[in-house]
Amino acid sequence: MKHLAFAAGVMMTATAAFAEKPELVVYTYDSFVSDWGPGPAVEAAFEEDCDCDLKFVAAGDGAALLARLRLEGARSDADVVLGLDTSLTAAARATGLFAPHAVEAEFDLPVPWQDDVFVPYDWGYFAFVHNVGLEAPTSFRALADSDLKIVIQDPRSSTPGLGLLMWVKAAYGDEAAGIWKGLADNIVTVTRGWSEAYGLFLDGEADMVLSYTTSPAYHLIAEKDASKTAAAFDEGHYMQVEVAAKLAASDHPELADRFLQFMVSEAFQSIIPTTNWMYPAVTPKAGLPEGFDGLIRPARSLLLPEDEAAALRDAALAEWRDALSQ
Amino acid sequence: MARRAQPVGAGPGIGAAAAVGALILGSLAAVFLRAEAGRGLGPADWAAVRFTVLQATLSAAISVGLAVPVARALARRRFVGRRALIALMGAPFILPVIVAVLGLLSVFGRSGWVSQALGWFGLPPLSIYGLHGVVLAHVFFNLPLATRLILQGWQEIPAERFRLAAQLGAGPGEIRRLLERPMLARVVPGALAVVFAICLTSFAVALTLGGGPRATTIELAIYQAFRFDFDLGRAALLSSIQILLTSAAALLALKAARHEGPGAGLDRPVQRWDANGAGLVAQDAALIGLATLFLALPLAAIIARGVPGILSLPAGVWRAALTSVEVAAGSTALLLMLALPMAATVATGRRAGVELAGMLGLAASPLVIGTGLFIIINPLADPRALALPVTALVNAVMALPFALRILVPRACEVVARHGRLALALDMGGWPFVRRVLLPRMRPQIGFAAGLAAALSMGDLGVIALFADPDRATLPLQVWRLMGAYRMETAAGAALLLLCLSMAAFWLLDRGGRFHAEA
Asked: What's the whole-model pTM score?
């Protein structure tokens, strides 16, 4: 009985001590918090001097994240959401769940960034990744004329897939449907998400896969494998910018602001390249890790404004479906 | 007609069926209630419905059509490794979809083994992508399951029947007509309905092997409605179509199936005197050989891919493996608590409602069920804290249709044979269950439990929405590894998952047969 009373006492003290530190809840996608993702290092670095408990909650991928926030509405525990991207910001903004930020930073994005709600933390270019030695096409037209086989992701279920849809639309406008018709015989298959497509490519099912210009850096740095590279397209490459935002219903708005400011700081940004395999939004003073310098840097960066992209989406999707269903 | 007195009460089974129905339909209703006015169903959605029904019908017909001869061959032959082969038949079914697809493509893909072999003869590579690819993958997943369900039908024909048939000089043709056809008429409709229901909610397999947006299924449309448009109403509407289609299939199967069993025997080991002709032996050997190759090659590919990674798995994978084993154990216990009373109730003649409730778990979209449960749980408790119990529960409900297909025929037989005597001895209720019903259903309980454990181990199901970063299940961990370029580690973790699932299946299935085989 004594032991029980003692245990209960300890538990209560522990709970009390725990409650003194504010808890900042950050919703993010799965791969951010995995053992090999940026999560653990970010958590340690932020907790060093915030006198708080940073808690990551993972919810699938970016789209699942937004769906979850919409399900929870203003009742959500989340203070910050980290992991939406430029294809989701229009819908996210329309929910009215997010509050303006107060972050100041010199972003190293290839396009000007002005947004009072969403703060970028990393970015990348979509690109077709292939093995070194392949005579890679230099445009969508050249790809459509070639016999090369590609694997892409479904724009209805995956962000890279949607990125490709916008890439073709941004580069070709009204001619996009013709491009898709030309590509139809090059497409081996369309997968639900990035993992399946990349897995198929590594297994040799296709010559090229839709991924990022930074993908070869993973193979080079983590696997010491220099056999992968990305094809540079003359039309330019479509961008994906990953962003975070503060929730309007946050219990700890100051702490949330502090986290967003920390997110664009040296400590956070230097973790990104070799854990999230994307370009940091603010280049660290030491520069990018070795292996990133060999990557292709597109001459033109494409990114449709979010409202334009949202307005185009349904029509672009119908074009895509019709061209590939024949 | 007045109901005959029965040795077991129908209450617990009806209660379990009602609970399952409430869980599925309640989640669906929660999604409907939470929905704002959205878009109705467009032409693209109806195209998805048409394609889904087409591929599910083809997949079910071909899986079961092939399973009948394979099961017959297995039923009338005894050979070394037969038991291992039957255990192996659990494997394709329990693999995470993405792992199985990569395994299949290692064999049948553009640069797969078959295409390479064709290349030696100067032939072009195999083109797997299209409706035929979707059906091939679904047959790979479901042929083994259908074979085992039908094989069980053969095992339920008492040995005495074959003995009598042999004494009367019946050849394979007469045995087929007198013993096998009636048994098939009883077993096949249920197997067809189950396979149809599984294929109805297929998504990643259909899309990847279908080669593009032609292969859009209802489940993909649900995914799109939920994630892209956050149109919960449309997601729930589409899921209702899935439920209607599955219910229709289940009702057809119930109507088509003939109920009277093969009658009682003395549980003697089966001996067969028919089918000893060289032609039939060669035919059976060829069938068993081909089926084994079809199943074993992709599995061999998965094993070959996984071996390099399995030796250096990170600690997180082992933690996840432990979590998965716990979830599987909980799910199996829950499944038996639901399935046994339901099977007993069906055996006492109250069929349709209970059987239909049992099919619901397969019929509804996992995404919609997960969302509905999330909507219900979120105001009451932290969904993260309940992630594992909810996963175990949903997995149990999804395994229920299989468990009922396995348990119901035997339960019917036991009640029919021993029920009257038990009642005459005034041994109804719990004593009947404990002393007569359960001991006689041991092999079936073992098989059902094994399947449930293995299924639960491999299922990604609803965990994604509830996920807690610290307590991932093994399939979720495989998925995360693949999403982070770590394909080799993912392949190793997938192999570990395959081993664990097979071990759970084998242990439980074997445990049920302990002492039982002569």
From this structure: 0.86
